TrEMBL record:
<dbReference type="Pfam" id="PF01593">
    <property type="entry name" value="Amino_oxidase"/>
</dbReference>
<keyword id="KW-0274">FAD</keyword>
<dbReference type="InterPro" id="IPR002937">
    <property type="entry name" value="Amino_oxidase"/>
</dbReference>
<comment type="similarity">
    <text>Belongs to the carotenoid/retinoid oxidoreductase family.</text>
</comment>
<comment type="subunit">
    <text>Interacts with COX5B; this interaction may contribute to localize PYROXD2 to the inner face of the inner mitochondrial membrane.</text>
</comment>
<dbReference type="GO" id="GO:0005759">
    <property type="term" value="C:mitochondrial matrix"/>
</dbReference>
<dbReference type="Pfam" id="PF13450">
    <property type="entry name" value="NAD_binding_8"/>
</dbReference>
<dbReference type="InterPro" id="IPR036188">
    <property type="entry name" value="FAD/NAD-bd_sf"/>
</dbReference>
<dbReference type="GO" id="GO:0016491">
    <property type="term" value="F:oxidoreductase activity"/>
</dbReference>
<feature type="domain" description="Amine oxidase">
    <location>
        <begin position="266"/>
        <end position="385"/>
    </location>
</feature>
<keyword id="KW-0285">Flavoprotein</keyword>
<comment type="function">
    <text>Probable oxidoreductase that may play a role as regulator of mitochondrial function.</text>
</comment>
<protein>
    <recommendedName>
        <fullName>Pyridine nucleotide-disulfide oxidoreductase domain-containing protein 2</fullName>
    </recommendedName>
</protein>
<dbReference type="GO" id="GO:0007005">
    <property type="term" value="P:mitochondrion organization"/>
</dbReference>
Length: 581
């Protein structure tokens, strides 16, 4: 396996810039010495911000250090003939207004909705012709209840009420996602007009309170308590509780027993696709096709997007106002404002001259919790996994469960907690939590005929290993082999189907995609780093202490996931500020 985390079986490594994508990665537009706005980083939020600003008449340029746009929402042909959503791999959270405002379907976006959407097979001894049990969940509530009743009739009756309870909370929080948080700095230190204007941002909070009404205390518990405490009040069967708990810990260095883990669950159920609340789906052509559609929307209105042009630092005038950026090649690009889609840590600790930032602010940024449990493994296979709990069709064609998020080592919440405790000791989990997805089950364009691409989102793997070990070739392969052994127990023959694999540990995710600590949210989605306090108190509204510099990435409200809300919200804040200049 090469140092970049690429371990190959019977295939050889492809160029990081395959020809099938190169035409899309070249710069859109000719570099000018000055723009109204510069965006650092062409992740999906940066692209969304650029698309909105350009539509509002703000001449905008985006500079991306990698040869491909999209940040973590990319499609890359790591193994010849196999196209992977190399980092992010599912779509649900992207805000509905963004689809409409940016005309993403017109710009080529196509989606594959999943139904059913969740499959949790059991590891049980086969008795004669009886196959192990499994839990398959989809949009048909009656069928869901039938599935759950295998494990608990009581839980089957409770499930519709639980879903309605969670949907109401998602409905209440939804308006908060599309507006900047209350500007606490303006409220505390601004003029009378600024204080009154900041009060107007309380409206979404008041709306949320009205929706939740008398049940507010119960909902408060969901956001603050360990998710296991919440689930124990609703259900008794471990397979159902563990399946639901995966959404509370996925991407987070938390256990189901960690206080506040309920919010991460909510973060993953508050989305929807094409009017279906909570729906998740695959993007035709991989997640990079979404980034391409946003890019196309932005450039169609005149935005300039440049790849392989890294920003070295933010330019600041002698009066303490942003005046552009300096690129890695030494060239200067002037602008009235700069929006950074990079993480808060990269933006303020590496790109911004420290003398222009308050010491306390810099210290807060340096202390942000960025711990990540995630190792992403992309796998090319020559046939579909054949699960003991749901045997393949004779012809090998995909069955309904193949399109799901397939949860392995998730039969019991204790397994999830034990996997977390391993990582707290500096060790990769002995039985990792695995979310296995097969996007080629619905999108055959991603792999050669008969073959498939498999996404393994696994945890828990600490950034720093115990006993002085590092994530070298041997450790990467050892962990991936352990994951494959786990899959083999559920789907015998899986290891023999592997054509090649791409292993991305937390340090790899940080190095390749700029995710601090490998954290897919830029910083943890814990209660002390949300809303008013994301990324820090007094600077949660996309502005920062340096005039003219803004954040527009996942390290700002409302957080991570392929949501686009940070980019959209930041663009509107910037536009209002530009009008008042």
């Amino acid at each position: 396996m090469a140092a970049n985390g690429l371990g190959l079986g019977r295939a050889s490594a492809a160029s990081p810039c395959p020809p099938w994508r190169r035409a899309h990665w070249e710069a859109r537009g000719r570099l000018k010495p000055q723009y109204d706005a510069v965006v650092i980083g062409a992740g999906h939020n940066g692209l969304v911000a650029a698309a909105y600003l350009q539509r509002l008449g703000v001449n905008t340029a985006v500079f991306e250090r990698r040869p491909v746009t999209g940040g973590a929402a990319v499609t890359e042909e790591i193994i010849p003939g196999f196209k992977f959503s190399r980092a992010s791999y599912l779509l649900s959270l992207l805000r509905p207004q963004i689809y409409t405002d940016l005309e993403l379907k017109k710009h080529g976006l196509r989606l594959h909705l999943r139904n059913p959407y969740s499959f949790t097979p059991m590891l049980e001894e086969s008795m004669g012709s009886k196959v192990p049990r499994s839990l398959l969940l989809g949009t048909d509530m009656a069928e869901n209840q039938k599935q759950i009743a295998q494990f608990s009739r009581k839980d089957a009756q409770a499930f519709p009420k639980y879903e309605a309870f969670m949907n109401r909370l998602a409905l209440a929080i939804d308006p908060l996602l599309d507006a900047a948080p209350v500007d606490m700095e303006a409220f505390q230190r601004g003029s009378l007009w600024q204080r009154l204007r900041s009060l107007s941002t309380l409206k979404p909070l008041l709306q949320a309170g009205r929706i939740l009404g008398a049940q507010l205390p119960q909902y408060y518990q969901v956001l603050t308590a360990p998710i296991i405490k919440v689930l124990d009040q609703w259900f008794e069967s471990e397979p159902l509780k563990a399946t639901l708990a995966t959404d509370a810990v996925i991407g987070a260095m938390t256990s189901p027993h960690t206080p506040g883990s309920g919010y991460v669950l909510l973060h993953h159920v508050m989305g929807g696709l094409e009017g279906m609340q909570g729906a998740w789906g695959y993007v035709q052509g991989g997640m990079g096709a979404l980034s391409d559609a946003i890019t196309s929307s932005a450039t169609a209105h005149g935005a300039s997007i440049f790849t392989e042009k890294a920003v070295a630092k933010v330019l600041v005038s002698s009066e303490g106002r942003v005046q552009g950026v300096v690129l890695q090649d030494g060239s200067e690009v002037r602008s009235k404002v700069v929006l950074s889609n990079a993480s808060p840590q990269v933006t303020f600790l590496k790109l911004t001259p420290q003398e222009w930032l308050p010491k306390e602010f810099v210290e807060r940024i340096s202390r942000l919790d960025t711990k990540s449990p995630v190792t992403k493994i992309n796998v090319a296979v020559d046939r579909l996994p054949d699960f003991l709990a749901a045997p393949n069709a004779p012809g090998g064609q995909p069955l309904p469960h193949h399109q799901c998020s397939i949860h392995l080592n998730c039969e019991d919440t204790l397994l999830l907690h034990q996997a977390f405790e391993d990582a707290m000791d500096g060790l990769p989990s002995h039985r990792p939590m695995i979310e296995l997805c097969i996007p080629s089950s619905l999108d055959p364009t991603l792999a050669p005929p008969g073959c498939h691409v498999v996404s393994l989102f696994t945890q828990y793997t600490p950034y720093s290993l115990a006993r002085g070990k590092v994530w070298d070739e041997q450790e990467r392969n050892a962990y991936a082999d352990k994951v494959f052994d786990c899959i083999e127990a559920y789907a015998p023959g899986f290891k023999g189907s592997v054509v090649g694999r791409d292993i991305l540990t937390p340090p790899d995710l940080e190095r390749i995609f700029g995710l601090p600590g490998g954290n897919i949210f830029h910083c943890a989605m814990t209660l002390d780093q949300l809303y008013f306090a994301r990324p820090t108190p007094l600077h949660s509204g996309y502005r920062c202490p340096l005039r003219g510099l803004y954040l527009c990435g996942s390290g700002t409200h409302p957080g991570g996931g392929v949501m686009g809300a940070p980019g959209r919200n930041a663009a509107h804040v910037v536009f209002r500020d530009l009008k008042s200049m």
